[in-house]
């Protein structure tokens, strides 16, 4: 599992870090497809997510959200370093309700790709995920959708066209409209 998913995490992290790095302050108040957040709030949420997934990978506890600090790249790099350890993939995380750590790694990947896409759409840029990553996320999202919706992490499924890409089908399953426009 680790050998397959870790390169996907790194690829998604690289894409999303680049997006975050290139967001000018004048775009911070733009709306995003993640309706609870504007651009700045979304980046803040992504910073927190990276720190949370770093903590649980290392066997740590649940972290409360903090204010925006502008250090997304550094947080993601620490998160990836934590997932490098073979022990990060073993057992369950009591901090996350006893979920297997491999599930949490998939959740970290979901977070990077979905919110990377959110940020790209909000700021008028493109977001691409490797086909293998998108397929992995689509399968994971289909399995986790009922729990994700109960927990408020996923919205209601959006029906996408039959010819939608794998990434767009994944986005639809988690409640994102691939045709979203600001």
UniProtKB/TrEMBL annotation:
Signal peptide: none annotated. InterPro entries: CHP03086 (IPR017520), DinB/YfiT-like (IPR034660), Maleyloyr_isom (IPR017517). This is TIGR03086 family protein. SUPFAM superfamilies: DinB/YfiT-like putative metalloenzymes (SSF109854).
